[in-house]
Amino acid sequence: MPETAWETLSRAMAEIRALSGASALLQWDQETYMPPKGSGARGDQLAAIQGAQHERLTAPPVAEALARAEAERTADPDRAAALRVLRFDHDRAARIPGDLVRAIAQAQAAGVDAWKAARDTGDFGRFAPALERLLALRREQASAYGAPAGGEPYDALLEGYEPGMRVARLEPLFARLVSWLVPLVEKVTARPPPDDAFLRGRFDPEQQWQFTLELLDAVGFDREAGRQDRSIHPFSLGLDPGDVRVTTRIFEDLPLSAIFSTLHEAGHGLYEQHLPAELRRSVLCAAPSMGLHESQSRLWENLVGRSLPFWRAFLPRLARRFPALEGVSPEVFFRAVNRVERSLVRVEADEVTYNLHIVLRFELELALLRGKLAVKDLPEAWDARSERLLGVRPAAARDGVLQDIHWAWGELGYFPTYTLGNLYAASLFAAARRGVPGLDDELGKGNLRPLLGWLAEHVHRIGRRKEAEDIVRDATGNGLGDRDFEAYLTEKYGA
Amino acid sequence: MPETAWETLSRAMAEIRALSGASALLQWDQETYMPPKGSGARGDQLAAIQGAQHERLTAPPVAEALARAEAERTADPDRAAALRVLRFDHDRAARIPGDLVRAIAQAQAAGVDAWKAARDTGDFGRFAPALERLLALRREQASAYGAPAGGEPYDALLEGYEPGMRVARLEPLFARLVSWLVPLVEKVTARPPPDDAFLRGRFDPEQQWQFTLELLDAVGFDREAGRQDRSIHPFSLGLDPGDVRVTTRIFEDLPLSAIFSTLHEAGHGLYEQHLPAELRRSVLCAAPSMGLHESQSRLWENLVGRSLPFWRAFLPRLARRFPALEGVSPEVFFRAVNRVERSLVRVEADEVTYNLHIVLRFELELALLRGKLAVKDLPEAWDARSERLLGVRPAAARDGVLQDIHWAWGELGYFPTYTLGNLYAASLFAAARRGVPGLDDELGKGNLRPLLGWLAEHVHRIGRRKEAEDIVRDATGNGLGDRDFEAYLTEKYGA
Question: Do B41 and A25 touch (CB under 8 A)?
């Protein structure tokens, strides 16, 4: 009996999912256990798997089956959703010629090398030619995709991270954000900084590690369906809802680093663990956007992990491991982990200034792609915007235009998703507090399960059945916006 | 410009190698770090990668390019060797229909489940139907391959592990082995057992682990191009010459277990690290047979690791970690690690009795495949042969016919390669002693580099450019045989 169109697609989807899980493992290993001399072969391995994935998605029999399945009527909403997602993924993959994919991969490798050399020497000129090459290739890629309805080339790239999002919505949204964030930063930084002397000193790495495991268990991360390891840059990767890897990093003299890294990555990890396991072989078993994914990490890191109720519950546990903290009150600790300052480096920024770092990057990459800014003028444009938005000017390119790896990878359109994550997080957390009576009391008792249950139901278990903003709208009553975020920051820092 | 046939093949080979490296990593992770709930998806991931490998090897453009490249003349011996190997691999892969591959994979999974249930209950009957199914599928597979020239169906399976080897050569060879091994066992076991009271007690696991790392460094295993981890069953896997994983296991009350596991797997690992890196994207960057691979693990485990010179050098280092061993002389320790006894379980057997365990399995699987033995009669046949060859009769199937997992995977033709490994190891070690003046003295000083250099030159760096027996013949002056092994055991245990 010949396969039906849907059977062909189901087989292709299962293989795509399996290959993407394999690819995730290779990346995880690369950052955790791979011996140094393994890196050459690792590039080949990842490229071979990604090539096989691309083939599964774009092979003529799959394209034909997709067209046939779309022509049939289906009463199954999951099937209809899978067809929509497959069409989206297929068309994007099919529009990019193999030569361009290879050229981008090469330019990325060259970009990272050039960026490292530039960063080490502080000489942006060593990175500029590679960035120009990447920019040209991304323009070519955007043109191959074609701008989405009502959009511009940047939108075609943005679509790869945040389907459905448009520059036309981000620009006014970000302008609004700037309009109230800048005065808020002004106000908060005018006050004397909170006391955090008790965070200076040595904090035993093994005790830090054990506390992060305690946190993973407390937030409900299932360590039978995942694990935590160490890496230089913390990250999370889901191979399958049953196999989710998170990492953290531990500095003996910076105890907050491991704690907030773990909470951040646990947020991503919880999302991956609660994706719809019944659809584990379907393209629907994934998050619909980077912004929604980031909302989960930000929610656990900031809305939960930097809240007073959380530290009412967890400071005593932390102090059991570090007796130097025994005299510190939750209120004092809470203020110390919420210190706001004008700083140069995004990854160290607090939750008030963070989005200003993102606006800066968004404006610059948009100008680059629109051809309104030349690569050679990027450092000066960076520094000027940093002064305007953050009130500080980098002394060295390493702390300025060369601080992030994203552009070295040619990632244009990615940065805005961090801010979308912050906005979605605030909206979802506000809705959870409305939806779960006594949520704050439970947090204060260290019981994080009611929150997880609400998020799993309203976000995680939906997978890619809906688009990100629709998930947020159904969960909160509103689509993308900054009202909940403004209310959250104003309540927390305004007084 | 269109690709040449050789370019098409080179690209296919590079992808096959890369996918096989990826597959090795998935297997490594499965036995070391994978969380328990990851196992379902892992099966899908491995199947998807193996499917992609199969496709790369058998796709019509590759088959055509292979035929075209064969028709051209080449003066490059590496290219000629790669074409020979590709032809061998391609034909074997192309002859097996996809349905049979899937049926075997399913029967293997069912086989392992049934075997575990049978072993736990001691009831062979619970395994028999699954084994019958696997046997039928392997017969079908052998028939799809076609018996090699001058061979029988068993040879078609044997060929998958030991290309070029034939039952017609193994039968007389194994008969000769039995003819002198059985009397040797008789003679050695008639003596009182050596003193090994000092091996009883508790040996700190962390100190054991550190000693195994010391051993890895001493034998020349490059830990920048590989790593050791722990697993329940020790194994080794090469992703690339720059990325080789070995594992060991540590029992607090069995200090020899970790030591000899590490030496065994290091032998495999050294082979993988010294494969021809300049051919890392070619099918030639691999060992030509399982037997030759095993020769390297046996050589380091037994010929080196169970020798007196080795313990002259390493017992003082071991005693520094375990002061209880301080009064023990190298001679006494040497005798203790070479205790010979009639035992039931292959994986615990000493080097004298070990090959009798293999002969037993070879005879039985050959009889099964020839249709001379029914699965239901296997337990009785096992016990009778055990009595004849080893002089012991299992009290329970768990220590008899159900002890190995190999048949549960339907692996028929694999066991003989263990004995080939032992024979090749003895011949190669004898040749190394002839070829490297003062080798024993260097071993006695703990300098293992001259031996590794000889093996790398004469075995490892050849890869699949030649067949296993040709490599051994070129290195030693002789092909497969038991003379060197007999001389080694007779000298060591005869007196």
Answer: no
Angle of helix A60-71 versus helix A77-95 axis, rounded to 10: 140
Residues 430-469 of A with CB under 8 A from B: none
Q: For A78-120, how does the pLDDT look when each residue is reduced to its tens digit (9 = 90+)?
A: 999 999 999 999 999 999 988 898 899 889 989 999 999 999 9
The band of B208, judged by pLDDT with boundaries at 50, 70 and 90, is very high
Interface pTM, i.e. ipTM: 0.94
Q: What is the pLDDT of residues B74-125, one digit of tens each?
A: 999 999 999 999 999 999 999 998 889 889 988 998 999 999 999 999 999 9
> Rounded to whole angstroms, what are the CA distances from B486 to B194, B418, B425, B429?
22, 16, 12, 13
Q: Spell out which residues of chain A touch residue B224, defining contact as CB-CB under 8 Å.
A: 35-37
- Provide the pLDDT for residue B147: 87
- Among B16, B23, B25, most A C-beta atoms within 10 A, so best to mutate, is B25
Q: Which of A357, A401, A418, A417 is nearest to A131 (CA)?
A: A401
Q: Which of A35, A45, A51 sits opposite B224 (nearest CB)?
A: A35
The residues facing A243 across adjacent strands are A240
Residues of B in contact with A224 (CB under 8 A): 35-37
User: In this structure, are B178 and B138 located in the same domain?
Assistant: no
Are residues A97 and A174 located together in one domain of the fold?
A: no
What range does the domain containing B159 cover? 154-495
Q: Residues B93, B54: contact at Cβ < 8 Å?
A: yes
B24 and B129 fall within a common domain:
yes
A265 is catalytic: yes
How far is Cα A142 from Cα A369, in angstroms, rounded to an integer?
Answer: 10
Handedness of CA A308, A313, A318, A320 (dihedral sign): positive
**pLDDT tens per residue across span A440-473:** 999 999 999 999 999 999 999 999 999 999 999 9
**Helix, strand and coil percent figures for chain B, each rounded to 5:** 70, 5, 30
Q: Which of A25, A36, A222 sits opposite B26 (nearest CB)?
A: A25
| Chain A nearest C-alpha distance from B48 (Å) | 6
> Which residue, of B131, B153, B175, is where some domain finishes?
B153
Are residues A244 and A330 located together in one domain of the fold? yes
Q: What is the pLDDT of residues A372-406, one digit of tens each?
A: 999 999 999 999 999 999 999 999 999 999 999 99
- A425, A303 contact by CB (below 8 A): yes
* B29 touching chain A per CB within 8 A: yes
Catalytic residues of B: 265
Chain B contact for A342 (CB, 8 A cutoff): no
Q: Which listed residue (A15, A140, A214, A265) is catalytic?
A: A265
- Could you give the angle at the alpha carbon of A37 between the alpha carbons of A33 and A40, nearest 5°? 100
Is residue A1's pLDDT more than 70?
A: no
Per the structure, how many domains does chain A have?
Answer: 2
The closest of B249, B245, B252 to B212, measured between CA atoms, is B249
**A–B interface: beta-carbon pairs under 8 A:** 128
pLDDT of residue B469: 98
CB contact under 8 A, A15 and B42: no
